[in-house]
Specification:
Strand order of the largest sheet: 1-2-3
Helix content: 40-55%
Order of helices and strands: EHHEEHH
Length: 85
């Protein structure tokens, strides 16, 4: 059984009829697009997509921070004012 990772779903036929109404009805959440009752795509509103991209970007940035903190080099203390001048 394939897991549907959305609270809302619609068939491809429904998507063809009115994609904007699907987005509106889902209230800003993703909509699973089903083909033969299996998810074939997810329709993601732009605001949610941008939020997802921000989360992914933050994750990769945090990974870089962890790598640099554990690279064996000693850290250097600086004041925030020194960075701004």
């Amino acid at each position: 059984m394939t897991q549907i990772l959305s609270n809302y779903s619609a068939s491809i036929s429904e998507l063809k009829k009115s994609p904007s109404s699907l987005i509106e009805d889902a209230g800003g959440e993703a909509v699973a697009i089903l083909n033969h009752n299996k998810p074939s795509a997810y329709l993601v509103p732009s605001a949610l997509y941008e939020k997802m991209m921000d989360i992914i970007d933050d994750y990769y940035l945090a990974e870089q921070v962890r790598e640099r903190l554990n690279d064996g080099e000693e850290g250097v203390k600086v004041a925030l004012d020194e960075l701004l001048s």
